[in-house]
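DATA SHEET
Item: assembly model
Revision: 1
Owner: S.N.
Input lines:
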Amino acid sequence: MSTLFNKTFALRRRQKRNRYRSGVQGIVGLALMGMVIIPVIFAPLIAPYSPTALNLSNVLAGPMTGGHILGTDQLGRDLLSRVLYGGRVPLIVVTAAVLLASIVGVVLGMTAGYLGGWIDQAVSRFADIQLSIPSLLLALVMLAFAGSSLTTLILVIALGSWPAQFRIVRAQSISLRKMPFVEAAVVGCVPAHAILRRHFLPNVMPMVVVTATLSLSAGLLIVASLGFLGLGIRPDTPDWGAMIAIGQTQLGRSWLLAVAPGVALLLLLLGVQLVGDWLADRFSVQGLLARGG
Amino acid sequence: MLNVDKLSTDIVTAAGVVHAVDRVSLSLERGEMLGLVGESGCGKTMLAMSIAGLLPASGSVVSGSIVLNDRDLTRLPYDEAKRLRAQNIGVIFQNPTSALNPRMSVGSQIVEALNPEDRTSAAGADRKCVELLGMVGVPRPWDRLSDYPHELSGGLAQRVLIAIALARNPELLIADEPTTALDVTIQAQILDVIDRLRSELGLGVLLVSHDMALVAERADRVAVMYAGRVAETGEVGEVFRNPLHRYTAGLLDAAPSVWSTGHGRTRLLAIDGTPPDLSAPPPGCRFAPRCKFSESRCSTEPEVVRLDNGHTYACWKPAGELLEATSAEMAPDVAPDHGAPPDGDRGQPLMSLSEVRKEFVISRRVLGIGTERRRQAVAGVSLDILEGESLGIVGESGCGKSTIARLLVGLERPTGGTVTLHGRKTAADGRGEQTAWRRTVQLVFQDPYLSLDPTMRVRDSIAEPLLYKGGRKRAVRDLVERLAAEVGLAEGVTRRRPNELSGGQRQRVGIARALALDPQILVADEAVSALDVSVQAVILNLLKDLQRNRGLTYVFISHDLGVVRYVCDRVAVMYLGKIVETGPTERIFSAPAHPYTAALLAAVPGNAKRATLEGEIPSAENPPSGCRFRTRCRLATEKCALEEPVMQNVEGDGGGAVACHFPLARTEGIPLG
Amino acid sequence: QANELTIGVPNAIPCLDPACNNSQYERSVKSQLHLALTSVNQDEQLVPQLATSWENPAPTEWVFTLRDGVTFENGTPITAETVKANFDRYRDRSATAKIAGSWLADIQSSVASIEAIDDSTVKFTLTRPWTEFAARLASLPIIDLTWVAEGNDATKGANASGPYRLVSFDPTSAIVLEANPAYYGEPPAYSKVTYRVLTSPAARLTAAQAHEVDVVLALDPQDLAALKGDSALKVGAVESSRNYFIWYNTSRPPFDNQDIRLALNYAVNKAAITGSLMDGMTSPSKGQVLNEPYPGFNTDLKPFSFDKAKAKELLASGGQPNGFKMTLSYPSGAYPGIDLIVQAVAAQLGDVGVNVDLQPMTLANWVSMLQGDASKATDATVAALAPADTQDVGMLKFFASSYTMNKSIDPKYDELFAALLKAETQEEHAKIVKELTQRQHDNAQLLFLFPTPLTYAINKSVDMKIPSNGMIRAYDASPAK
Amino acid sequence: MNPIVETTLDESVDVGAAPPSDPSRRVPLSPNRASDEPAARGRRHHRSPITLRFFVLRLFTAMLAVWGALTIVFFALNMTGSPVALLVGDNATAEEIARLTTEFGYDRPLVVRYVIFLRDALTGQFPESLQYHSNSLDVVLERIPATLLLSGLGLLLGVTVGLGVGYLAANGRWAWSRRVPLAIIVCAEAVPPILLGVVLVLIFSLKLGWLPTGGSGSWKNLILPVTLLSVYAAPSIARVFRASIVSNAHADHVRTAEAKGLSRRMVRLRHIAANALIPVINLIGVHVGAILSGAVVTESLFSWPGVGRLSVDALLNRDYPLVLASVCVVAVGFVIVNLFVDIFIAVLDPRARER
Ligand SMILES: Nc1ncnc2c1ncn2[C@@H]1O[C@H](COP(=O)(O)OP(=O)(O)OP(=O)(O)O)[C@@H](O)[C@H]1O
Ligand SMILES: Nc1ncnc2c1ncn2[C@@H]1O[C@H](COP(=O)(O)OP(=O)(O)OP(=O)(O)O)[C@@H](O)[C@H]1O
Ligand SMILES: [Mg+2]
Ligand SMILES: [Mg+2]
């Protein structure tokens, strides 16, 4: 008998640990994100030097020399300051782009899912078409010919990530449309826009948030890759991707040049992913649409 | 053969340990059928799964024994117990379609279950599969082997599951609500199969169900469970005729039945409250908090009393012969019947359907390739809804009941025919008129869990239609409180979110929301079928009260004929998109004129002249010519295949109409069995 | 293996038809497969090749005597008729329009006719005096025209006549050559050569570090330091014929003002940039667009010194005492180190109050800007242009007023340049060039920066000299003693 | 009360109406056919999964996607003017540019050029590449084998590792075997490929000297880029597979399988893992796009002569026709892969066939 009771306790312990662990995952993720994002936001206050102030007499200085904690780059600019500032472009671009993509995806997805018919067909096909061009390639085409600026970068990243949001929101909206509580609203003569706002939006939100975290990390990678391929923002604006590209030839002399921005990006991505996983766990466990509580 | 002694099963959840089964003792002999009944969540499934060794990962048997043929399964090593169970216990589940692997063909799923010696050759295995499928009455078993689960109807899938369960010649069959998801007619077929197998193979059957009538009809013995414990066991006839535990008595009172007389007259006797939380069950008698007869000693655990005839119960204040007397005393608020009897003219048709059709396109042709598939959900229905009546619509699954409901409230537009409200066509109206129409007709949904937005507080759900009617915030709030009170929701409840409510409370919210716009017609599509008997009784009473107080007209859709008989004045019987018979409730139930109505009634458990309607409903994509019911009708002739019967009046006795070439005369009664 | 050579080149080599023009690397490969009438050797001297001798009997007449017995790989002899046919094709606008772009524009406008006088003599009649005509011919090899007729598909071979023949052709990855048995001269020292395409600077660096290539060009100057410690490599740079300069959009204020143009020349500390970014591989330009490799290099001119005070003074006298804002475009990644250089220059201009808005462009967009409308161009642009033939005319042509950026402030420049095109003797030519460079210097028509260093890393087992025009030919290499 | 006799009797009335498209209700012509000569029919547990309609529908969508991709790219490329500038080089005169603009037809209206382009594209006659001076489609097609090799191997490795780790994470015997590989792979997902590529070269080519820094030709050239590409694919496959296994483990049909007395391994493989593959395969379809994107970076990093690098080079050199051809080929490839994915899913999941 005692073995059976032991089993019960073991089960209970495991359950507790799982809950604890997934909570920890979220906290670690948020901590990592904060660790990168906060210094980047407050770069003007924290950074010891201007990211563009060059000193041609002290190029490629090693770490901890001459007041440069991470050393200097090829133009004698303080690497730490550049890493701090270098996160601003990716963060601004990706946040704005994901926000934009989410709004577009949610609006189109809800409309297409709710209305169905040719509108749905048209938007869905457009999303399919968009998806058939790999997003980096599409971004390259757009940037090479529109030139890269903050706005074009944002648009290009948003263009690449709205289909994911759209598809998910649309699929959810299609099943929501058949939900009795939505039909009840229809029967209660609630206008379509109100149904979308009051019933669809809150119910698709969890998935939207989870998808947005996925787009966030994909977007960060694309911005970095674009910078790396030389299609990022103008080169005197520090940007992690471009910094890695410029630093990669200096690995022998000053490996920090490529690795420092790379690690900053890595920590941010890791944080975003952990938070995303955690949110996904959270929401599917709660399963807002699932029966019961 | 099977002896369960003081079995306890715990489930570990985030909220705590649920004692789903608590010191339960049972026994079952070969060839015997033991029914296990009780409200939802009382531990029936967990008990069955403990025996079958299929508990969820978080669950485990913590004490007691399960002795199968003299071997205690709880004490055997894991592998040995598993082997023993696989050999001796077959299990079938509630939802047959999802219990089959959607990815694998029927054949390969049966083959997997065969004994190794039956699997030595492919052809041999196939033959064995076919044999099994034949045994459970699957037509053309060879053709089924390559079918996939989603291509099977519920009845067929359940037969396949039984075939799988029988693959190793078990001695014990555990059937967990095997027919809850099925129609009455299919339910009867499946239970017939189980009955036959029981006698042919000497199977012992543990039948889990919440349908008392079904257990009463089929089982030899019954065990009534409440909150993880067995409240009462005994011979079926004895227990149901003479329930001793107050809980059993309450359950029996709560269920409206087709066969008991005097329906439409009295209120149902509901059990108040909800079953206790099994992670912290109340001390003493677990039913005490809901029991109208509880007294101080009920807070200690009642002893199990065993009578000579094997009838056991655990109650301090058994019902016994006192039942009749007390039930009146128990329900002081019994009200006399509301309206006038259903005879005579009830008023103007408020709403009418004439020759209404609804076709769904299932798949279109693509660039001229493939076939277009259309499904006729409603195929020419004419029906009047009279002011102040309760019209019942009954029929098997898929016959178009819900579609009619949706046409009535405007969720679907007819593809043919017209829907008129107050004599005005609805379909062609402009937006404003549409809104007015919709506000006159409201819908109550089947599923209390899905009919409320989980992200919204319930008072906002109720208020929603009012807000968009242009109500002022303050007035709306007051109205919501009034409505909530009217449907019997306590004050604080409206501030909660749906997941904090019980099923019954949610259904009350759903009704309040439908009433918010002060409609004339309330369409209730299976409004109580997802609820436990006890809750169902409460909601049915509520609906009746509302009708009386507000003068509502009901369109009441249900596949539960007992409920329909209790609620409705007039009934329309549907078969495959058409109405085959209409008439006053009493006439329909006592003297059905259409063979299908008769067959439907015959399939209801508890019918003395039990009979089973064979076959399944034909496809709505390609309905049979002439009379649609002819493929399953024993009276069908050549004429039925060639000519479509028209509605003709039924003589005398409250009248009504029937669409049959050979309507049954009153004296004929039910022609089957 | 001792007899094999691997050369890393920074551009794809997409086309082996000499009528195409993509890069000096492509020309290097072509010049080893096909013989031209003349050739420029690794000491940058004009030497005979298919022609054994030539003369210039009249300013507009050139006569070439061909080598006897030279054949293509498949045995077809190369005669005066072959040469004439080739040049007729070069001259035919419609035949070459799609592939040549403007690569043959000078031939098409300046060659009036070609005559095969006999089997081994060809005569060119020009429309103008062209003193460097023979040098120009070095970049126009003679090929088998049936190869062109058959679709000039390099994957099927090239029917070579030069020291090497084509073994395999993969334009973005590797081109493999082997010694051509049909070649008339000494067989080359390396019998097998691979040109490996390494488009990114990082790829070139790592390939050199891993000794995957024997010779590699166009490394980032700063990267050389990483290789200097490698005892197996010789690393260094030659001053190339490409000169970095900033091209003012002189049609637009304030660059129509000479003081401003001068001020900027004083404001930039070129020595600091060459010392750090270029790692000392080059030195500030001598106040002109020409440098040593050009025949007309003007030794009289001196560099503009770095003098902030003077710059400020000039800005003030130019009417911009508080500095001004300017846009500065550049072809990102097109020249070694350009992205860093512009940032350094911009920062230094910022020090004197000139606020620079950098505008990186792709090479293609940048080229279109240079050829578009001056009003749409940026205020200034960074360039490092060079003519294919390292000739003065080619270089000086860029600064005539027909070019977008120099809507001329100096009509005299155009006049002098027109005279240069008509110069009949070397002396006259040299004199005009000197005058032109002087004017450019005095006018501060450009912000002169420095010549790009043509960096290289060569395995010590290979003996090879890198010429200033970047032609990198395997037959110029030999195993080191 | 014999149901078989009953139904067949009824259905004999019904023969003409029996719809062939609804297999569950197929009606035999002779009531007893079903039970004769079973052996001759062999094993009938499987049916051909693909209908013509299914295929045509998918193909149509696929073609639509390719057309759309081409259109988007065509207009994106042509919005910014003529590429003649690049062709003429830096020392051409204005009249030369004008002449070539006419020569190449860039003076025609955009719509006309679009129509001509579509017409030519239909026949495989893409405009000539400005750098390679031959049919740009041919130039791209020549690069296909290299890209296929690289992406194929990368995907294969990624999928293998992803499935392995996902399975282990769901079913590992010990706690560490469930967590450690998954944790590693989740961290790997966060490493930016550009950084990883740079670090891989630093370690394996420069420090250890085991592998070449780039280029193509030997199997050694493949190792680093393939590793890099597989890092794109493996983590999300592992995660989705794990999640899918976990959610499938609670499905009703798994309980049925357990009730049959199947071994735990059998239940896991056949009833859980195999069913859990369906979303993974969907994901692989999506991943092909990511891999192709990744190939752009990877090929550039390792000087791999594939379509990815070709398209970047073409873009930087403003070789419009070549860009169009590359994007077209990539889109076609992507669409074809997804066509296969759809078909494969239909094979795996009979329910998907009806959609
Ligand atoms: N997987 C599970 N995890 C946690 N609790 C569970 C689980 N399954 C059942 N329970 C709890 O165990 C108790 C008994 O559930 P069980 O399913 O046996 O009830 P039931 O009588 O079969 O009900 P129903 O008629 O709804 O099928 C309930 O309180 C239920 O909430
Ligand atoms: N939106 C739809 N698209 C396609 N077919 C539909 C749709 N709605 C209903 N049907 C089909 O129409 C027929 C009638 O459906 P309906 O829901 O009205 O039946 P029902 O009598 O309410 O059945 P149940 O008792 O199962 O609820 C069924 O065959 C159903 O499959
Ligand atoms: Mg249950
Ligand atoms: Mg229904």
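QC remark: Chain A is about 75% helix and 0% strand.
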